[in-house]
Design goal:
383 residues; alpha+beta; Single alpha-helices involved in coiled-coils or other helix-helix interfaces; Heat Shock Protein 90; 5 strands; 10% strand
C-alpha cells in the first residue's frame, strides 16, 4: 500500500515538473524579449534548471527549494528575467511544497530564503512597491496554504489511524467476547452434565441394592440411568472443543431453564417492563442444556427491551414441535439489539444458538418495535 502511494506521488511530481518546464520554455521561446531579459538560449537553460528540482518537491522539499532559489538568484544576477511570470510561479509551488511536506523549521527557512531571492529579483527588475506587495502577498499566501493543507492532512491521517486502531480493538473485543461466551456456555453445560452423572451414580447404587429383592425397581433405576446417560452424551457432544483452561474453578451454581422464565418475567415486570409470557413446551422433551440456552436468549432479549424501550411492553412465545424449539420476543423498543453497539448480547445469542445448529433472526417491526426469533433444531435424542 505504501509502495502504491509512493508511485502515485512520484507520478504527480513528474507531471508537475513537466508542466512547469513546458510552460516556462514556451514563455521563453514565444513571448521572451531578449533586449529586456537576455538571450533565449540562456533563459531556456536557466528555466530548465529552475524547474528540475520540482521532481523532488515531496521527498526533499527544502533541498528542492534551495536548489531552485540558487538557480533563480544566479539567473537574476547574470540577466534578470524581467517580466517573466513562470519563475515566480515555480517559486510559489516550491514554497507551498516545503510548507506542506516539511517541518515547521524547514518551512520557515524556505519562506525566508524565497522572500530574499524574490526580493532581489524585484530590486533587479522593477523595484516597484506594488511588485513587492504582489510578490509578498502571493508568497505568504502559498506558505499559509501549504501549512493549512499539511494540518488538514495530518488530522485526516490521525483520524484514519484512530479508525484502524478502533476497528482492530473492536474485532479483538468481539473475539474475546466470543471466547468468553463460549467458556461460559461450557461451564453451564458442565453443570448439566454433572447433574446427569450424579443422577446416574445415585440410581446405579439404588439398582444395586434392590437388584435381587425388587427387580422392577432395579429396572426403573436402570432406565433412569439410560435416560440420564443419553442426555449427558448429547450434551458432551456439543461441549467438545468449547472447554477453556480458564474455566476451571468457575462458579458451578445451578443454571436456570424454561421453568424459571416466570421468575425472570416477574423480575422484569417489577423493573417496569410489561411482559406477556406464553410457553407451550411439552414437559420432559428438552435437554437441560437446550433449556438453558433458550432461557439465556429470552433473558438477553428482554434485557435489551428494557434498556431501549423503557417502561414498554414485550411478548415472549416459547413453543416446540417435533422439529424445533422456537423462541420469539416482540417488544416496543427502538430497534437496537445489544451487541450492535457497545455490548455483546447479540454475540452471546449467536454463540448459544450456533451451538445447537440453530438460526437467529432479528430486526425492526413494521409500525415500531423489534422482533427477535431463535430456532433450535431438535435431534432425535431430544424428542
Amino acid at each position: 500500500m505504501a509502495t502504491g502511494r509512493f508511485r502515485i506521488s512520484g507520478t504527480v511530481d513528474v507531471a508537475v515538473a513537466l508542466f512547469f518546464t513546458l510552460a516556462l520554455q514556451l514563455e521563453v521561446w514565444i513571448w521572451w524579449a531578449p533586449q529586456e531579459s537576455g538571450a533565449k538560449p540562456f533563459a531556456s537553460a536557466m528555466g530548465l534548471l529552475l524547474t528540475l528540482p520540482l521532481l523532488w518537491r515531496r521527498r526533499a522539499p527544502l533541498t528542492s527549494l534551495l536548489a531552485s532559489m540558487a538557480v533563480l538568484l544566479a539567473w537574476t544576477l547574470i540577466s534578470a528575467p524581467q517580466g517573466s511570470l513562470w519563475p515566480l510561479l515555480t517559486a510559489l509551488a516550491l514554497v507551498f511544497s516545503v510548507a506542506m511536506y516539511d517541518t515547521t523549521r524547514h518551512a520557515v527557512i524556505g519562506l525566508g530564503v524565497s522572500a530574499a531571492v524574490l526580493g532581489i529579483e524585484v530590486v533587479s527588475t522593477t523595484n516597484s512597491l506594488g511588485d513587492y506587495a504582489f510578490v509578498g502577498a502571493f508568497l505568504v499566501g502559498s506558505w499559509l496554504a501549504g501549512r493549512a493543507v499539511r494540518a488538514r492532512q495530518q488530522r485526516a491521517d490521525e483520524l484514519l489511524d484512530q479508525t484502524v486502531r478502533m476497528e482492530a480493538e473492536r474485532e479483538e473485543k468481539a473475539r474475546e467476547a466470543a471466547l468468553n461466551e463460549r467458556a461460559r456456555i461450557a461451564r453451564e453445560l458442565h453443570d448439566v452434565i454433572s447433574h446427569s452423572v450424579s443422577v446416574m451414580v445415585v440410581q446405579a447404587g439404588a439398582a444395586e441394592q434392590v437388584f435381587d429383592s425388587d427387580p422392577d425397581q432395579a429396572r426403573n433405576a436402570l432406565r433412569s440411568i439410560q435416560e440420564s446417560g443419553r442426555q449427558a452424551r448429547h450434551e458432551l457432544r456439543r461441549l467438545l472443543g468449547l472447554m477453556r483452561a480458564d474455566s476451571e474453578g468457575a462458579n458451578l451454581a445451578p443454571q436456570p431453564g424454561l421453568a424459571q422464565l416466570h421468575t425472570l418475567v416477574e423480575q422484569l415486570r417489577r423493573s417496569g417492563l410489561d411482559v406477556d409470557l406464553d410457553v407451550r413446551v411439552e414437559p420432559s422433551t428438552l435437554s437441560p442444556g437446550l433449556e438453558l440456552s433458550a432461557y439465556r436468549v429470552v433473558q438477553e432479549a428482554l434485557t435489551n427491551a428494557l434498556e431501549h424501550g423503557g417502561r414498554g411492553r414485550a411478548r415472549v412465545h416459547v413453543r416446540n414441535d417435533h422439529d424445533a424449539l422456537e423462541v420469539e420476543v416482540l417488544d416496543e423498543g427502538q430497534g437496537r439489539v445489544a451487541g450492535e453497539g457497545g455490548g455483546f448480547g447479540l454475540i452471546g445469542m449467536r454463540e448459544r444458538i450456533a451451538l445447537y445448529g440453530g438460526s437467529l433472526e432479528h430486526g425492526p417491526r413494521n409500525g415500531g418495535g423489534y422482533r427477535l426469533r431463535a430456532r433450535f433444531p431438535l435431534s432425535s435424542e431430544e424428542q
